[in-house]
Fold:
Amino acid sequence: GENVEQHPSTLSVQEGDSAVIKCTYSDSASNYFPWYKQELGKRPQLIIDIRSNVGEKKDQRIAVTLNKTAKHFSLHITETQPEDSAVYFCAASINYGQNFVFGPGTRLSVLP
Amino acid sequence: DSGVTQTPKHLITATGQRVTLRCSPRSGDLSVYWYQQSLDQGLQFLIQYYNGEERAKGNILERFSAQQFPDLHSELNLSSLELGDSALYFCASSASQGRLGTIYFGEGSWLTVV
Structure:
């Protein structure tokens, strides 16, 4: 089955700096890659997603890149703010929603 | 608000007991997923249903079972509870058409086993 790895497990950056989180997946059939942000005690919320027919997608300060050949995708957050502090999960799925598998998460701390 | 409703929000029960967690998916969503999240841990996939049928199974214990009813709501049954079952249980749903693939999480049900 699909296996998703995520690095780093924790990340601390200064406010205003950029943060990058990387994920790799094992199943080449995976074709949908969402990213979720989870604040303490709350539900994971979708922040951005990318499909396998796209190499990059951007939404304001957040961007995601996908390398299908290498089977990895990354989340980029620019101009980080304290409210970006949270746990971020990547995920991979087949058939646009079947068999969702999440990475172990990255705890991002943005230091003022 | 994601549109996914979970009840109860909080539940405290004793070891050996049985509880049922309930989930109502977003209107029109046919897929329901259940995840377990222990303290400071990741999202462990338990099971997925699509239109009443089991679609995928993760690391779900034999003491746990789930089902999806004709009205598409789902229930997760946890029996012979152990202290280690204390966790936040999330339900999520996704659409069968439209914006395919995106899953939306409910607020979760906090289960504490004492």
User: Anything to note?
Assistant: Chain A touches chain B through 23 residues (CB under 8 Å). Chain A is about 0% helix and 60% strand. The longest strand of chain A covers residues 86-94. The CA atoms of residues 6 and 104 of chain A lie 6 Å apart.
